Amino acid sequence: MFKNFLQISNTLLGAHFRQHSTIFALSSGQGKCGVAVIRVSGSCTELALKCVTGMSRMPPPRTAILRSIKHPVSQETLDKGLVLWFPAPRSFTGEDSCELHVHGGIAVVNSILDALASLPKLQLAEPGEFTRRAFYNGKLDLTEVEGLADLLQAETEIQRKQAFLQTQGALSKLYNKWKDNLVKSVAHIEAHIDFEETETIEEGVLDEVIVKVEELSKGIQQHLEDGRKGELLRTGVKTVILGEPNAGKSSLFNLLCQRPAAIVTPIEGTTRDILEVTLNIGGYPLVLTDTAGLRSKTDDVIEKEGISRAMQTYKDAELILLVVDSQKCGEPSAEHPSMNQMRHRQHLMKCLEYLNSFLTTSTSDTVLMAEYLRKALRQLGTKMDSFLSLFDPNTCNECSTDDFAIDNLNNQKALPPEPQVGNIEYKLKIVNPTKQRFEHLVTQLKWRLREGNGEAIYEIGVEDSGILAGLSQWDMTASLQTLQQMALKLGASTTILRERTLDNGRSISEVLVRKIPDDQNNIEVRVAVLGNADAGKSTLLGVLTQGSLDNGRGRARLNMFRHLHEIQSGRTSSISHEILGFNSNGQPINYSYSELITAEEICDSSTKLVTFLDLAGHKKYIRTTIQGLSGYSPHHAMLVISSTAGVVGMAHEHLAIAIALNVPFFIVITKIDLVSPTNTLQSLESFLKQVGSRRVPLVIKNLDDVITAGANQLTENVVPIFCVSSVSGEGLELLLKFLHVLPPGISATEKERLEQESPEFQIDENFKAGDVGQIIGGLLTKGVITEGMQMQIGPHKNGTFQNVMIKSIHRNRVPCRMVRAGQSAALCLNSYIPNLRNGMVLLKADSNAKGCLFFQASVSVLFHATAIYQGYQTTVHIGNIRQTAVVLGIFPSKCIHTNERASVLFKFKVHPEYVTVGQRLLFREGAAKGIGEITQVFPLLHKPESE
């Protein structure tokens, strides 16, 4: 990342020095032509023009005069041509410029370019440098620069019209209008915040701002819902011709091309490969592709490859022409300019997200509303003012929290620029802020905590650009005190993660700010523990949660087991839950924290709670392990590998399942007191490269590595590796520090979205507790559940649901009144439910829910020894559902092989289940396994019992 920063810095410095030089180049097309235009721009343009024309004084601006063009050294006449003079600032680049209109012969042009190159302080322009200078000098904004590039590349009339509109500022005017409205709204809401108590501001200002933001939000939403027509006009509509062999595809292809581009014969399968041409049809750009004929069975290897390529081209198409044998069966608008860059769409979508957050925020929290408007305004500003986007607009999107990494501060002189979104904030110093400035700082902290779901990281002594400036000891102490006061105002705590002293003697600090959300007792992270049998999973959890080391014979794991046969065999066969807490100082809170401490007291004393799901490692219990990963939706997975055995057994299988379910993971190598982990680390490195090309192992050796790993955990490309011993305790401290900074697996925005949906509680456990009543345990995937809420539970054997009421709620063995999306809980129902089973769901009472036996899914087969055909039976995992299902149909072929994808119709074999479109599916039977997503559900139509 630092290397990229240096490359950008060198580019910027080079651009700065070139900006003050004089450049020249051929501005018309290359090759022979009637007239060639050579352009010169820069401070020495006047001197250069006098040298090559012999003029004693400059001609009138923007007036063409005929002059002889001479070599400035030999005074040889090279050509006669027209000369035009454009003094600054009324020129294309905003600098002194001139144009030489000469004969377009190659020798003539080269001789004049050589003559200009012989002059001091003149240099040949780089591609696009005239436009770049126009951008530097404010003659064009970024959207107009993009429009100019499109105008030069335009091949059709519609492309020309769209690009010309953009060069005239059509997009700029629209975006600037939105930007001006946002600036006014920010000013009004800031005034409302500052003068609300003095009563010197007019009434209704806040209401007026809300109305304007609603109008702006609707305008951006309509702009985004354009079907990508601007981008399609710019690049050409990708059109694919599909059909059976000999349906007439190639004949249609030749007709549209107006030439015999494809071979046409009566023989089926003549077209074997992809044929692609770019057409201009009525002024519209079209990228037309002819493909091989599609059929389900063929013994020709070459034809099979052609069909495979045709299907891949079909997936990337924007328009499909389906050709069927009959015997067998707009222009861009100046009023509404179209987006033609993906960059525009990304920034506007982020802007719209902030505007919608503004509209849904309570009017009593005006400070947060103002922050949302500032973020939206910044996104609109980025659309036209991004300096780096000039060099590569497609690679200059803002950093996100997911791909933001804090590398070792000792080994670099700068961090990446401060991300606009996420939970990381840079502050050079915050010493003695004014009251108004302090309120703004608190608002920023509130925003960062919201982005990090209760956690924020502050880099003190770092500029917004990422430069590590550092602070004196006095300024650092004062800044940390200010940050602590900001945190106290929000009810948060601060913890210094690390401090560094720079070469200049100044220091920088990295501080973790943590605030428990108002609706939670603590921040909760769920970690699934995976690994082969005898890897030491339960022993490691026993050491972490009990606080005492193992004796080398498995004493620490005894508290993890739930059944007698587990104690006797030493193998986990069921899913057990264990908790590990952390206080605001990062100190672990477990059962050794104080004498006779209970789980309830651990929850009450912790600001962050890590819930471990100890899953079975033996092959015999693989279905239980898959159910734990699928049903409990863990935020992270911890793969435990024994250094004595290495990467063997079910470790490959468990990791493949975690990747298929998109669960971020880290690795812990145990038993290093017995064997050096060197060989295991080497095998892990090659293993991770096989898992995916972007998996980068990071062996944790110190606290800096811990912070780096924690910041990158959700990116899914960096895999932290810890080497520990449950007997000697080596490496456990670093593992605990990592668990302390481990981020929750869901963003605040996603969490809010889920909470606004109708509640859906997946039942994983059920039992009856004496006189208390029916108890169910599980995970709330969507919505909010409160005490006394009327709900319905099911589906029963006939697909119906039964009405129930929530009597009480417990979380982490502590009573509570509410459970929110993403939280696990135990619920007590008001009545006994006959035939209650795991896999049922609890839904809102007024939802018209029905169970289903039949469902369709888009499936990818990860492995199968032969092929999957109709009638195949397999165990299907969908969330908390685990049931055998039968394959009733495969489309479009009759079977599906390894690494192939198809649409499959399933039927549950025993009883109906509640599934929804979009849910992830995982199936496994023996060595065969696959993943998919549900695309269609067929609800049961039950009849009344009287019938």
TrEMBL record:
CDD domains, per database record = GTPBP1_like, GTPBP_II, GTPBP_III, trmE, TrmE_N
Q: Which cellular component terms (GO) are annotated to the entry?
A: mitochondrion
* Pfam families according to UniProt: GTP_EFTU (PF00009), MMR_HSR1 (PF01926), MnmE_helical (PF12631), TrmE_N (PF10396)
Which top-rank group of organisms is this from? Eukaryota
InterPro entries per the record? EF-Tu_GTPase, G_TrmE, GTP-bd, GTP-bd_TrmE_N, GTPase_MnmE, GTPBP1-like, MnmE_dom2, MnmE_helical
Give the family, as the similarity comment puts it.
Answer: Belongs to the TRAFAC class translation factor GTPase superfamily. Classic translation factor GTPase family. EF-Tu/EF-1A subfamily. Belongs to the TRAFAC class TrmE-Era-EngA-EngB-Septin-like GTPase superfamily. TrmE GTPase family.
Q: What is this protein called?
A: Tr-type G domain-containing protein
